[in-house]
Write a structure and sequence with these properties.
Structural class: mainly alpha
Number of helices: 6
Strand content: under 5%
Largest sheet: none
Shape: elongated
Order of helices and strands: HHHHHH
Number of domains: 1
Distance between the termini: 38 Å
Helix content: over 70%
């Protein structure tokens, strides 16, 4: 066989005697690195709910356009919501820590609930303000997390 680095001629060294017990102890410890399975399922379910609710909003929004045009507060809340959704789409491609994933999952679930309510009452400005506030909170969470991950990547 080809051995360009001449590794076969290296002296054989036995592993330290206390190596196996330390490996065994490390393997017996429960791992805390993986997020619970239910958390990823909750995030996926809330995203599906948000997409379905958004489709209902598009259908519900069409007949009520004249009502929305008469209410400038409603138009402003809807425009702010759309603007924040564009910001979130740009921010979602990042690394998140476990606490952020959990809080964002709850926020996604609350957003889905708000979207269901907005499907029933699309011209209620108060619900649109709540949705805008929630989207702003989500954007700041992503921004905080992206800043930290950028700092971590720069430290390598």
């Amino acid at each position: 066989m080809n051995d360009p680095l001449d590794l076969r001629n290296l002296p054989s060294a036995p592993p330290p005697a206390d190596l196996w017990p330390s490996i065994e102890a490390a393997l017996d410890k429960p791992s805390r690195r993986r997020a619970p399975r239910y958390l990823s399922m909750a995030v996926a379910a809330s995203l599906v709910l948000a997409v379905v609710a958004a489709q209902f909003l598009d259908v519900a929004r069409t007949p009520g356009t004249s009502k929305a045009a008469a209410n400038p507060e409603l138009q402003q809340a809807r425009a702010a919501s759309a603007r924040l959704e564009r910001v979130l789409r740009a921010q979602r491609d990042g690394v998140l820590d476990a606490t952020s994933i959990e809080s964002l999952a709850w926020m996604e679930q609350e957003l889905g609930w708000l979207d269901v309510q907005l499907a029933d009452r699309p011209s209620e400005a108060g619900l649109w303000r709540q949705r805008t506030n929630l989207l702003a909170e989500m954007a700041s969470e992503y921004q905080r997390n992206n800043w930290q991950s950028d700092l971590q990547l720069a430290s390598y």
